[in-house]
Amino acid sequence: MLIVKVSVLGGAGTIGSMAVKILASSGMFSEVIIGDVAYEKAKKLASEIGVKGVSAVKVDVTDSDKLHKTIKSSDVVLSCVGPFYKFAPIVLRASIKAGVNHVDICDDVDATEALLKMDKEAKMAGISALIGMGSSPGVANVLVKFCADTLLDEVESIDIYHAHGGEETEGPAVVKHRIHSMIIPVPVFLDGEFKTVKVLDESGKALEEDVEFAEVGTYRVYAYPHPETITLPRYIKGVRRVTNLGLVLPPAYAELIKGIVRLGMTSEEPIEVNGKKIAPIDFAVAFALHQRPKLLREAGINEPMGCLKIVVKGKKKGEPSTYIFSMFSRGMGMREGTGVPAALGTMLMAMGKIKLKGVFPPEAAVDPIELFMLAKEKIRIGGTVGLPIRVEYIDRSGKVQRLSLESLVKTP
Length: 412
Hints:
This protein is α/β, with parallel strands linked by helices. The protein has helices at residues 14-25, 39-49, 64-71, 84-98, 109-116, 119-125, 139-151, 172-183, 202-205, 228-235, 251-262, 280-299, 334-350, 362-365, 368-378, 405-408, and strands at residues 5-9, 31-36, 54-58, 76-79, 101-104, 128-130, 154-165, 186-190, 193-197, 209-213, 217-223, 241-249, 271-273, 276-278, 305-316, 319-330, 358-360, 380-381, 384-385, 389-394, 400-404. The strands form five sheets. An eight-stranded mixed beta sheet has the order 10-11-12-7-15-16-20-21. It has a seven-stranded parallel beta sheet with strand order 3-2-1-4-5-6-17, sandwiched between helices. A two-stranded antiparallel sheet has the order 8-9.
């Protein structure tokens, strides 16, 4: 066991609790602190895990003094506190002030831009801040890096697709994230240039497409403001196109959230209703969560399900080549899909495998082989060992060949 203390902020939440369980069972940490505003929930989780060194503390990340006190003696901070457009910069700023290495799962592009602007401060503090270490972003970035470094000689386009839903619960922060993603300009990288589209405008609709997801089905996906589109072009030489398209399941739930945005019910300014003040967005979120179980039942979705699909096109020995990576599951969803990579990134940080200083995305500092090998060693979920990634190779003639990730990984 390493003598390493990790503080997991938002550790009692859906994703954070998954990461906490993996970190606690890894045998790598002398202390795992579950920091959450929901203290009773955090305390219950610590008790359920029942591993020595796991404890809970009440912390509101907007209370800068308490936040600093919580993380200052940590070796690594893992932040799972959402919505990220509100809280990701606050937590990173606290990690920099405390001089503590940092990992997060931020998938809001505007927050990512704010985090990247703290690069100089993080370097001056001598810390490493690995941001966006979830599924998309996270595993998606690492798989693209693996493909670019190992499988293709040239990368021309990167299209990242995701569809998931059916989780037993969904918190208000997640719904606010979904609303936020439909309001802000969505960055895309087309024809070698950064551009923006709006999900509900014609510019966004032009990118929509029907995508077949392994074990999940075929769904129409729309532009998502995930940060791969702004980071991958900086690290993948020669790429001309990077997009990120996704959908929350069932489609009727996604349409409900689109309807909320169309109606303009996104203001946080309270209005008076029958003598009581309520912010439109708070009502909208509560209504969406109230409707969600019915929409899931009507769609026949009775368990978590999801698929992350990455299509990388380029050239290999001068010939057009395509690699498709799919990570899919039934019975597991966003909790595992994001919590597992977050825990793996935190372990790599604790092991000293992340050498870079400053603020950076996964493709800048995570060695794909090290991530795959660590996952194989530490991850056992639902009978699955490691990261369940399907690989397909399509040659210039259109012939599809199914490959195993292991066959492509050249270990030292």
